Amino acid sequence: MDHTITYNSEKHIIETKVQGDLTEREADVLISEMAQLAMEKNCFLFITDYRQATLNLSTIALHRVPQKVEEEARLMGIHPSKFKRAIVVSSHLKDFRFFETVTLNSGQNIKMFQDMNEALQWLCDNIPQDTL
Question: Fewer CB atoms < 10 Å away: N or C end of the chain?
Fold first, then answer.
């Protein structure tokens, strides 16, 4: 897996792009790096581009991802619901739909898109004041 994580100061969002196979270990690293940048920039809005990625995670591993996000948020001293995450995927939706459902069921704020502009619109609409 190859990835980049950057802070967009103009939009006040964290932008991530993931390419290749995403394994459980790599997902953990990605979550930790994103959380660290969130703390550094006091930014809790995320857009992640998975259009060139393949989820190579078992069903059990997919269930653990929201738990890992919650652990990272708690280490930062915040509730994981403060994060607002847009994920952009290609037409290969099956595993990503399951991931979205599991994450929503954990009480976290996430939504899946196939269009980057729609994802940005959703992410930046109705931003809670405590995230700015």
Answer: C
